[in-house]
């Protein structure tokens, strides 16, 4: 996990240059569903928001096991690192010959490559660790570049996130709540998942404006409320009043996720855990 995490500025830069692969993704005006499981579902949420908010077409994100794809979509994008996840394979198989499918896949030799209409493979971002870091963010870098976004700033922020000295207080908190708005909501969910997977930490995640509707009740001294992107007015003061630490993410939200990944790794090491092989988890969920 450590080496893969640190390589993200490089893999994002490579993804930004993949013009032919980006051209395989749905063009502007297409009505699209994006599906995935776990981490890939959260990245799908971010991509869907960016695509639709950017005026490129109606875009929905679904967990593959709960997807409503018979809604007249022009294309379905299936995001999966392994290309072997049962729910994704079953969904794509059911769409063959009916809807164009595009796979964004880490393993170029996986079975999904052979059943989608178009395969975008990112083998340079694939990982051995069970806990995803760089594949997820590299796929999102590819998506962002395909929508016409320049990634120079995010890559520079990621370099800072990888190099900065971690604050012991931030890494040693009792509890973390991650918040985001718009496209960073999916990244907040992903940050919480990384902390749970790698370090068995108590983490939660919400859209920023939902935080006041109950979840703020757990804010207290020794706990962290970590915001990705620009926070709603007054939220920092409300959190400070509880005694919790408000971590106002100043980097690009994707780079802020890298910071959270580093905290998860540090917490795992402090507890003697192996973040590459977390308990009860495998690299891919393959059902009988």
Outline the structure in words.
- The protein is α/β, with parallel strands linked by helices and 288 residues long.
- It has 2 domains: 2-146, Rossmann fold (3-Layer(aba) Sandwich), CATH 3.40.50; 164-270, Glucose-6-phosphate isomerase like protein, domain 1 (Rossmann fold).
- The protein has 11 helices and 9 strands.
- The chain has helices at residues 2-6, 8-16, 19-23, 39-53, 86-95, 134-146, 152-163, 168-171, 184-199, 235-242, 253-270; strands at 32-36, 59-63, 75-80, 100-105, 118-121, 175-180, 203-207, 223-228, 245-248.
- The strands form 2 sheets. The chain has a 5-stranded parallel β-sheet with strand order 2-1-3-4-5, sandwiched between helices.
- The two termini are 28 Å apart.
Distance between the termini: 28 Å
- Give the strand line-up of the largest sheet: 2-1-3-4-5
What is the chain-wise order of helices and strands? HHHEHEEHEEHHHEHEEHEH
Helix proportion range: 25-40%
Corresponding CATH architecture of the largest domain = 3-Layer(aba) Sandwich
Number of domains: 2
Outline the biggest β-sheet. Answer: 5 strands, parallel
Quick description:
40% of the residues lie in helices and 16% in strands.
Key terms:
single chain; 288 residues; alpha/beta; Rossmann fold; 2 domains; four-stranded parallel beta sheet; globular; isomerase activity; repeat; GlmS/AgaS_SIS; Sugar isomerase; isomerase
């Amino acid at each position: 996990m450590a080496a893969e995490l640190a390589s993200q500025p490089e893999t994002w830069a490579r993804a930004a240059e993949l013009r032919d692969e980006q051209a395989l993704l749905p063009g502007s005006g297409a009505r699209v569903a994006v599906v995935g499981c776990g981490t890939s579902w959260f990245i799908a949420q971010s991509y869907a928001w960016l695509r639709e908010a950017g005026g490129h077409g109606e875009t929905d994100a679904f967990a593959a096991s709960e997807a409503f794809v018979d809604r007249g979509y022009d294309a379905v994008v299936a995001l999966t690192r392994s290309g072997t996840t049962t729910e994704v394979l079953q969904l794509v198989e059911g769409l063959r010959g009916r809807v164009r499918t595009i796979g964004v896949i880490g393993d170029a030799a996986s079975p999904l490559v052979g059943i989608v209409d178009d395969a975008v493979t990112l083998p340079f971002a694939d990982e051995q660790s069970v806990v995803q870091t760089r594949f997820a963010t590299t796929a999102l870098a590819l998506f962002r570049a395909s929508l016409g976004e320049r990634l120079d700033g995010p890559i520079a922020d990621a370099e800072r996130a990888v190099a900065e000295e971690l604050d012991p207080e931030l890494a040693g908190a009792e509890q973390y709540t991650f918040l985001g708005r718009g496209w960073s909501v999916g990244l907040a969910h992903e940050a919480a998942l990384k902390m749970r997977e790698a370090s068995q930490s108590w983490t939660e995640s919400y859209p920023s404006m939902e935080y006041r509707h109950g979840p703020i009740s757990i804010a207290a001294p020794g706990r962290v409320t970590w915001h990705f992107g620009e926070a709603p007015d007054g939220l920092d003061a409300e959190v400070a009043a509880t005694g919790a630490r408000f971590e106002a993410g100043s980097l690009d939200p994707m780079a802020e996720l890298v910071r959270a990944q580093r905290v998860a790794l540090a917490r795992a090491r402090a507890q003697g855990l192996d973040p590459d092989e977390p308990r009860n988890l495998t690299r891919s969920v393959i059902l009988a």
